[in-house]
Amino acid sequence: MRKLTTLVTVVLVFLVQFAFSQNNGVFGKWITIDDETGDRKSIVEIYEKGDKVYGKIIKLYRKPGEDPDPICDECPKDDARYNKKVIGMEIMLNMTKEGKDEYANGTILKPDEGTVYRCKIWKEGEQLKVRGYWGFIYRTQTWLPYNNKQ
Q1: Distance between CA 91 and CA 107 in Å, rounded?
Q2: Neighbouring-strand partners of residue 131
Q3: pTM: predicted TM-score of the whole model, two decimal places
Q4: What fold, for 25-145?
Q5: Distance between CA 130 and CA 15 in Å, rounded?
Q6: Which residues of 10-38 are buried (b: 16+ CB within 10 A; e: fewer)?
């Protein structure tokens, strides 16, 4: 009887962990895709810190001849990220929850051009939609889920 109880407990724990890992919303690692070229640009990890959501670059996909560990020399000089390394940089700041799996009211930085946009993120199926706003103009990118084999 004890073995059966242990087995049932182990199976239930596994099922709960599996269900959680399949439905973790916007949190986790995402491959960013250049919406003009279709190329992979980076891996961004989105996480919660306090009651806000942040995203940081954990890897860059670089072409031959490109600096493998660039700094954000295009960032605004009054931004704390100016002249800091892009890998490890928080590019998504202060997002707050709006609705079930939607976050907004924060900002996102495009380090290669140094522009900071207002930001909104949400999931559509397995994809993450990332919308940057500048005034009334916006642009939406589709990010793909990352797994350790990519």
Answers
A1: 8
A2: 120, 140
A3: 0.81
A4: Lipocalin (2.40.128)
A5: 30
A6: eeeeeeeeeeeeeeebbeebbbbbeeeee
Query: Tell me, what amino acid is at 93?
Result: L
- In this structure, what token pair is assigned to residue 76? 């605004």
Q: Is 70 in a helix, a strand, or coil? A: coil
Contact 122, 129 (CB under 8 A): yes
Q: What is the mean pLDDT of residues 123-141?
A: 95
The token pair at 34 is 């250049």
Own/partner contacts of 134-141, CB < 8 Å, gap of 24 or more, are 139/35, 140/35, 141/32, 141/33, 141/35
The domain limits of the chain are 25-145
Three-state DSSP at 91 gives strand
Phi then psi for residue 81, to 5 deg, are -85, -5
In this prediction, residue 47 carries a pLDDT of 98
